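STRUCTURE:
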């Protein structure tokens, strides 16, 4: 292939397909962000060749036809790979054309350096990774003010921390079950609002024009993480519209702030840390707790850590009727396993 853009696309469809088959999904952190950058670089080269609609995911069947026999896992996951790439393409194509127009205008004339604030605007608002903007600039003999880019990013992060302090401090009082993120597969969804906060207080509803925090059961919005800002968008409910200006992660789980109410015991102090035996004995202790209503003690517990205010059932067994128990003593080749049991 003589055309450099075709070479980039061919190389990147291989790389991204194998990454997805290995469980690496495009996001804003770590290997996931590398994956996102590769995909968006390929899309930009397709756009350069005249592709104005999603095309990249359609190359997966051709890749499988060439390499599927040698890599059965690639063929087995072809549909999933196409879905992941399609969603990522659809996200980027929503802003690609406008972003390219901004970049073209910024590089018009005798420009030698792309200002850092423009590079950051492209990154923050239009989803252009810095290296993608740098690629375009390099093709035109222009450099990027990376110091200005990082300064603009740090300024926004500082502003975000100040603006988001209310949301994070107050919304952390939510102690329900964590939600399910589906943003890698879907851009929209129908879901349930499980909690609403106004001025840090749990409320049943918001008035027109009132700011607040929503906690959703399922969400396509990516929460701020790893220096990347959270997604924005909208939530429609009946005849109401809630404009989402930011998405934040909150510490929400099954136990919330009630961990000190759970009874925790360890049988390892009775029999040592023998991998196979440990799991069997602890599982038996859990079954007996369900059957007999007696919690096994943690023996030899003499100096509790004041920073760890947990009920470890110290030294003496305790009568307690429980409906659910959990054992985490199993290990297999360095992998830990957890077993939960419920009385029926």
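SEQUENCE:
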């Amino acid at each position: 292939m003589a055309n450099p853009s075709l070479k980039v696309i061919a190389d990147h469809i291989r790389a991204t397909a194998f990454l997805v088959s290995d469980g690496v999904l495009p996001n804003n952190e770590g290997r996931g962000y590398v994956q996102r950058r590769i995909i968006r670089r390929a899309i930009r080269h397709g756009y350069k060749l005249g592709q104005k609609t999603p095309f990249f995911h359609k190359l997966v069947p051709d890749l499988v036809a060439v390499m599927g026999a040698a890599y059965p896992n690639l063929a087995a996951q072809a549909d999933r790979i196409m879905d992941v790439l399609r969603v990522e393409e659809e996200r980027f194509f929503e802003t690609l054309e406008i972003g390219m127009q901004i970049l073209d205008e910024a590089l018009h004339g005798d420009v030698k350096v792309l200002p850092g604030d423009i590079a950051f605007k492209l990154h923050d608002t239009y989803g252009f990774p810095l290296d993608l903007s740098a690629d375009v600039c390099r093709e035109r003999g222009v450099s990027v003010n990376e110091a200005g880019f990082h300064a603009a990013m740090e300024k926004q992060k500082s502003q975000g921390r100040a603006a988001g302090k209310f949301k994070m401090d107050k919304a952390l009082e939510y102690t329900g079950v964590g939600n399910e993120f589906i943003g890698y597969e879907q851009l929209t969804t129908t879901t349930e609002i499980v909690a609403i906060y106004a001025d840090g207080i749990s409320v049943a509803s918001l008035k027109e024009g009132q700011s607040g925090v929503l906690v959703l059961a399922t969400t396509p919005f990516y929460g701020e993480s790893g220096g990347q800002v959270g997604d924005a968008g909208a939530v429609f409910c009946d005849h109401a519209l809630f404009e989402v200006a930011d998405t934040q992660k909150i510490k929400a789980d099954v136990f919330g702030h009630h961990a000190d109410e759970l009874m925790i015991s360890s049988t390892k102090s009775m029999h040592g840390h023998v991998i196979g035996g440990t799991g069997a004995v602890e599982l038996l202790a859990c079954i007996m707790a369900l059957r007999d209503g007696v919690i096994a003690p943690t023996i030899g517990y003499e100096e509790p850590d004041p920073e760890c205010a947990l009920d470890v059932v110290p030294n003496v067994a305790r009568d307690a009727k429980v409906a659910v128990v959990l054992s985490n003593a199993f290990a297999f080749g360095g992998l830990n396993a957890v077993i939960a049991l419920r009385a029926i």
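REMARK: The chain has three domains: 4-144, 163-244, 262-342.
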